[in-house]
Amino acid sequence: FFFQAEDGIRDAQESRGLGDVYKRQVTIPIFAQALRIAERPLFKMLDDPPFTFEDYSSSLWNVIVTMTTVGYGDIFPMTNPGRLIAFFVCIWGVILVSMMVVALTNFLQMDNSESKSFLVVKRLIQRHKLKELGAKLISIQMLRLSLIHI
Predict the structure, then answer these.
(1) Please, where are the H alpha helices in the chain?
(2) Most C-beta atoms within 10 A of its C-beta, which of 9, 76, 93, 102?
(3) Across residues 62-75, what is the average pLDDT?
């Protein structure tokens, strides 16, 4: 299956990184070239097209904008094969962005030892705050007692 590791088993450190997502971003230039090929016949027939996919940068821009589902509308495919490619680019972009969000969440999520360490540090901070509060209360009480006896 495409979303599993090659051996079917994920290493704990490997699954927390963004490496799998970056490996799949190689599809961006592939989709850009496919869109460029699909739109080429139309622009050879038109005398003065409003925009062209002859530049690789234009097709790359269109693929990135479509993958992120921004869709500015400044450049869009006009042929049916180009629209089909844009449809798959949009679906693949949603999958890719979802994978990036999951990978980032897994990367930022604490494992068991990190959460225990965080809990210990949190308790130490609370203990320190309680000691400071207790010292302030004792000093206020001592001040009141000394003012009463004067």
Answers:
(1) 12-15, 19-24, 27-45, 56-67, 80-108, 112-148
(2) 93
(3) 85
